[in-house]
Amino acid sequence: MRRSVLFLMLVALAMLAGCAGGKKAELVNNTPAAKVEVPQDSLRAKFVLTLVGSDGKPQDLDAVLFSVPGKRYRMELTGPMGIGVASMLWTEEGWTMTFPTEKLYMKGNGYMVGLLTDNSLPLVHIHQVANLFDGKLLPDSYEVVEEKDQVIFAKEKSGRSFSFAKQDSLVTWLSRTGRDGKPETLQFKEYKTFEGVETPSIIVFQRDGSDYLSIRIKKVTRNKPFSLGTWRLNVPKSFSPVDG
Question: So what's the pLDDT on residue 119?
Fold first, then answer.
């Protein structure tokens, strides 16, 4: 995998959290497939992740999300022939990303995920991104500051500013300023009902006006049991840390 492709994997994993499953999960975790009880607010989503490289060419990856909102998330990305390319586990104790084909890994703490040493990689609020799959598109407990020309300007409870717009009560886009001063926007398209929850089936991530990542949600299920290895992600001793 070229460095540019690895960078896109980092972007995708920084933007998302959650998932387990497929052949890749078994290889990385080396854990049994026993079932365990899960909280009633658990969610699993299957989706297609499209990454846009610096050359403008898209690359599709299959992904699965397992989420216990606000507590833990797991994600794996698979490429052609079902080959696993990246995995992530986020818990309150910390997060880990692994890239098996590159034998690389990343670790961090806190709800903001990304590379602190690379300003070109967006740092994201992991809970807010995971909430997208449950139709929760706006931050919790935000305060409206101003409404102008059908655009709503608001602040999160942390004080961070953002703006958004609605059409027929549905959020169509949300925008924030990234840490390098460039705008980061989410476009919400083609709303569908997944198990009774109205959710955009297509979410497009833009940075400084250019698309770099999109999600096409295929299926969402709730209150299903997870495998025992969902919340375990081991890093082999042969893996090296990602050089930021």
Answer: 52
